[in-house]
Amino acid sequence: MKKVLIIFILAVLCIQCNDPYEFSEMNNINNSWNKKDTVNFNFVIKNAKDKKNINLVVRNNNDYPFSNLYLFIKLKQGQKTISIDTLNYRLADNTGKWLGSGMGSVKEIYFQYKRDYNFPEDGKYTLSVVQGMRKDTLKGIEDFGVNIE
């Protein structure tokens, strides 16, 4: 009986845990990101009046040949483009050591894309990302993701 009670309490506690993300999604790049491939994230914003942080997540491995990553990002609400940005994020320090965390050859690093951002209104949005490293096929990126908190 005690085991059942403990399991029930743990289940209730897990259900009550709040996920800090309004949206979170990882897309598998599978170690090969073509310069023509767009990674799209479709999401719905509720309570647009509340400021939100938009973060990017990169998982790279030792096949990645650079210390930085250029990205072209477009944020759209329906067919209307809200913003277009070119970003440059550092993945490694000056000695070549990866800045992300993780065990083994795959490292994960978070980048802040927009902080305290006010979406224009509640509704459906698309964040489109293209790699801008000027290589036809970019090796070493395992996954790319977005989370909105």
Description:
This protein is mainly beta and 149 residues long. The chain has a single domain, classed as Jelly Rolls, CATH 2.60.120. The chain is 10% helix and 52% strand. It is built from one helix and ten strands. It has a four-stranded antiparallel beta sheet, with no helix packed on it. Strands 3-8-5-6 form a four-stranded antiparallel beta sheet, with no helix packed on it. The chain has a two-stranded antiparallel ribbon with strand order 2-9. The chain is globular and about 45 Å long.
Give the structure's gist in a few sentences.
The chain is mainly beta and 149 residues long. The chain has one helix and ten strands.
How would the blueprint of this fold be written?
Elements: H1 2-16, E1 23-28, E2 32-34, E3 38-45, E4 52-60, E5 68-77, E6 80-90, E7 107-117, E8 123-131, E9 137-139, E10 141-148
Antiparallel strand pairs: 1-10, 2-9, 3-8, 4-7, 4-10, 5-6, 5-8
